[in-house]
């Protein structure tokens, strides 16, 4: 990789860090290519990004972002997961780490606040933005459904009474 390519990579990573609200740092030593592809797929479907990084270049890209305090974690075979959703990257990495002990979560940062491995695990247990939105929509639509069912109930009862009356009149005739 020549100097210009390195500058472009640092600029791209810096832009990714400025757009993200969370960054998770992990060691991946011992993972096979298939396991890495599985991990990338899980992270991608959750709306996050996962990449193996060069430590020196990543430290340069971290400068001037909310995540610059993570520089000390970049030693050894390091990978990062980033996302705009504060929970997505942590949740995807933590779920994969449960089934594969070779992915070791070192820590992370959320909006300038440094998290240790336990903090990332706690973040992963929180509901994602999509889950919170679904709950909110459910809460908002429940009263409307109840109002609709209450207003429809008397009309349904009236229709059943009229049908029964009509049936009894046709039998009498």
TrEMBL record:
GO process annotations (BP): translation
Question: What InterPro entries does its record include?
Answer: Ribosomal_uL10 (IPR001790), Ribosomal_uL10-like_sf (IPR043141), Ribosomal_uL10_bac (IPR022973), Ribosomal_uL10_bac_type (IPR047865), Ribosomal_uL10_CS_bac (IPR002363)
Q: Which Gene3D superfamilies match?
A: 3.30.70.1730, 6.10.250.290
Q: Could you confirm whether the keyword Ribonucleoprotein appears in this record?
A: yes
Keywords in alphabetical order:
Ribonucleoprotein, Ribosomal protein, RNA-binding, rRNA-binding
SUPFAM superfamilies from the entry?
Ribosomal protein L10-like
Q: What does UniProt give as GO cellular component?
A: large ribosomal subunit
List the GO molecular function terms: large ribosomal subunit rRNA binding; structural constituent of ribosome
Cross-referenced HAMAP family, in alphabetical order? Answer: Ribosomal_uL10
Q: What does this protein do?
A: Forms part of the ribosomal stalk, playing a central role in the interaction of the ribosome with GTP-bound translation factors.
- Give the UniProt family note: Belongs to the universal ribosomal protein uL10 family.
**Subunit relationships:** Part of the ribosomal stalk of the 50S ribosomal subunit. The N-terminus interacts with L11 and the large rRNA to form the base of the stalk. The C-terminus forms an elongated spine to which L12 dimers bind in a sequential fashion forming a multimeric L10(L12)X complex.
Q: What is this protein called?
A: Large ribosomal subunit protein uL10
- Which source organism does the UniProt entry give? Roseospira marina
Source organism phylogeny? Bacteria, Pseudomonadati, Pseudomonadota, Alphaproteobacteria, Rhodospirillales
What gene is behind this protein? rplJ
């Amino acid at each position: 990789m020549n100097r210009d390519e390195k500058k472009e990579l640092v600029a791209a990573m810096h832009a990714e860090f400025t757009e993200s609200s969370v960054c998770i740092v992990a060691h991946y030593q011992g993972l096979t290519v298939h396991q890495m592809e599985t991990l990338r797929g899980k992270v991608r479907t959750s709306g996050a990004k996962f990449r193996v990084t060069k430590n020196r270049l990543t430290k340069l890209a971290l400068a001037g972002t909310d995540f610059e305090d993570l520089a000390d974690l970049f030693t050894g075979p390091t990978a990062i997961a980033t996302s705009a959703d504060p929970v997505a990257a942590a949740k995807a990495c933590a779920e994969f780490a449960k089934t594969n002990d070779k992915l070791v979560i070192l820590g992370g940062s959320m909006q300038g606040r440094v998290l240790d491995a336990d903090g990332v695990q706690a973040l992963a247990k929180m509901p994602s933005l999509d889950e919170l939105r679904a709950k909110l929509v459910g809460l908002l639509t429940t009263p409307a459904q109840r109002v609709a069912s209450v207003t429809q109930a008397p009309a349904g009862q009236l229709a059943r009474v009229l049908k029964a009356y009509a049936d009894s009149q046709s039998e009498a005739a």
